[in-house]
Design goal:
Layout lengths: L8 E8 L5 H4 E5 L7 E5 L10 H18 L6 E4 L5 H11 L3 E4 L12 E4 L7 E4 L13 E8 L3 H14 L3 E9 L3 H14 L2 E14 L3 H6 L16 E7 L12 E2 L3 H18 L5 E6 L5 H12 L3 E6 L18 E5 L7 E5 L8 E7 L5 H11 L5 E7 L3 H8 L18 E2 L2 E2 L6 E2 L1 H9 L9 E2 L6 H33 L4 E6 L2 H16 L5 E7 L3 E2 L1 H10 L5 E7 L4 H11 L11 E4 L7 E4 L35 E2 L11 H9 L6 H13 L7 H12 L8 E3 L1 H10 L2 E6 L8 H10 L3 E3 L7 E5 L9
Parallel strand pairs: 4-5, 4-8, 8-9, 9-10, 11-18, 13-14, 13-17, 17-18, 19-24, 20-29, 21-22, 23-24, 23-26, 26-27, 27-28, 31-32
Antiparallel strand pairs: 1-10, 2-3, 5-12, 6-7, 15-16, 24-25, 30-33, 31-33
Helix pairs in contact: 2-3, 4-5, 7-8, 12-13, 12-16, 12-17, 12-20, 13-16, 19-20
Length: 777
Amino acid sequence: MNHNPADGIALTDTGSSSSWAATQLVRPGLRRNPRRAHLLVSTVLGKHIPVDPDVVVSAGEELAGLVAAAVGGSDVDVLGFAETATGLGHTVATALGAHCYLHSTRRIVPGMTVHGEFEEGHSHATDHLLMPTSPDLLAGDLPLILVDDEISTGATALDALRQIHPSAGRGHYVIASLVDMRTAEHLAAAAAVATELGIRIDNVSLAQGSVELAPGLVETVLALPDPTFNPVAARSGSVHRVDAQWPATLPDGGRHGFLRSDAAGFDIAIDALAATVDAGLADSKDVVVIGHEELMYLPLRLAAALQKRGHSALFQTTTRSPAYVLDAPDYPLRRGFEFTAPEDESGLRYLYNASAPQDATLVLVADAPADTDALAAAAETLAASGADVVLVVVTGADPVALELARRARPLRGPEFGSYAAEEVTWLLKDLSSVSLEAGIEEREKRIQAGEAHYAESLPVEYQPDLAYRELFEKVLQESASRLAVAVGTVTEVVLAERGHDIALASLARAGTPVGILMRRWAFAAHGIEIPHYAVSIVRDRGIDAVALRYLADHHDSRSVVFVDGWTGKGAIARELTAALRDFPGAEFDDDLAVLADPGNCARTYGTRDDFLIASACLNSTVSGLVSRTVLNDSLIRPGDFHGAKYYADLAPDDVSRHLLDTVAARFDDVRDEVSTSVRSVLASDRTPTWSGWASVEKVRAEYGISHVNFVKPGVGETTRVLLRRVPWRVLVRDADAPEHEHIRMLAAARGVPVDVVPDLAYSCMGLIKNVSTEDAS
């Protein structure tokens, strides 16, 4: 055949909104489809033609710029169309920093609910399914961006819009494409839908054009001889399999929704994937990374990451579309491969061109549902062409697990808590609307009787009188410099031993002010922004596993530093170690960083003195107006974070940020003292001796106390006993110590006797009353 049958397709440029023209973005191809015989083959998408990943990303970013202008810089959600635009849509969403990205799918996923569907009339595969982990991802008031690679009539986008709008209820939609081939009549139809639904529809594209088809093109294409697929070389290439693990609750694309908060974890996972694949490439430098069907964005990012590792990488994917293959000059589909669908073996899949410099390795990337015998057979089909094939199977991503994890949404101020959004991300479930408070006496009786766990309810927040609040201010001003030294010391020790690429995870709520202060010190001293999260840990129940999974999915688990205010007996340190030891799929370090370690049960600390940390003097009003954490089976479902309440009504008494600002204001004054302290700590033997636990046992025996949990050692723990438990008595080492003034005031207010015990290992201890015997025994 000497002529190019695609010559019967005439492309014309009619406009451009970018550096591209329509005739640069697409080339005419053919397909045997009686509804539509022509195919516009994109030169920048990476579907049918191998493309430099930088070109794909650049085109997507340029399209995102047009979208941003259309929405006036507003936050957006993005919907991409399967299968061709799944990667393009994700690229646009990434460039926009979209709140959520979702793409339609044609894959049936057991256990997942279909929340919407629409049709693409001219496509080889017409059905589009919408399967977000929650229908909430389709709702909202943000502009929704509908992304396709090429728009011929706009019917698919309008059908999708009609299906989504009743539940989404958005007022602004943008139809975005690389190339827009619609006529005036088609644009008028879109305007009519906008009027009908009372919405705004904008249209953006890199370029606009028109297509004119020769008469009888469909018949001409159907009459062409059968194309030849699956070229065979004199010598077959090799097939080498690489298994790559992906975090279970991190989406590997937009099929079930990709949130902005998923981006950091995705970047980390891609780097790890690239390292795994790079190790499996041996000496291969030229590669074509081939995604499978809708799995486009992950292989695109992999190709870009391999380029950074020194490979010359191109990118493309397989497809459902049976295009016509012809080895003729200027025709875009020069060779083709045909193989059985790996997912369900219900049909055929295709790959076109898959060409690169001689001796290039084909890197075929698929996910777990496609890991079948048919996938292995497809790899062998590619290898028969003479190319070496590296089959990369990315396993681990679990949409059902993701759906459960998605129930847990991180919280930030000002919607939750009084700390600024950048200071801390609360990995907690908001229970603010639930009544959980019980009187202290009643609550204590139920806990001690074994009828309830202390974490299932909350004590009524004790609000001290004016005299006590004035004392708090005095304590804060007098101890701020000492606190600043401890903050600087523990932060510098952490940075020296763990590096600067870390994430802080404070144990809510006592650890949270400390985590924020450590974050502030790191920025003031080194100019680094450290992410900071607050997570729940419950004695006898362990740390929040959903929060741990979130941290592991968004950061290198080895970089997470757990933070608390102080140690008492060391029960929480032991709880943390036990919880992290067997946590699957992650390598958390159980070294707990604390401001004060009087119990001698942590190796990373600011001081081992038992001194007053001002944040221990109050409850939520010094901890971001957030309650202690709650673990109650009736409220916390599988997949939820542990819970907490936000006491917004206490805002007039809130001193949370005041404490932070007061301590941070002393940072410059204590730099030299911190340097000396850090040298001393790093040079010392910091091996925990757990001496605090021994002293608690001694007190328990001397006072005839039945259980060690009734003994709370240290200034912070003693203050907690007086604020939210039923105290029996207080022990102090020095009757008139200034750091005990607030304790003596609280004890007097509650009628609690104070005993002086000169040889006490801690500066003070609080003993809890056994409410059944009216003493602590």
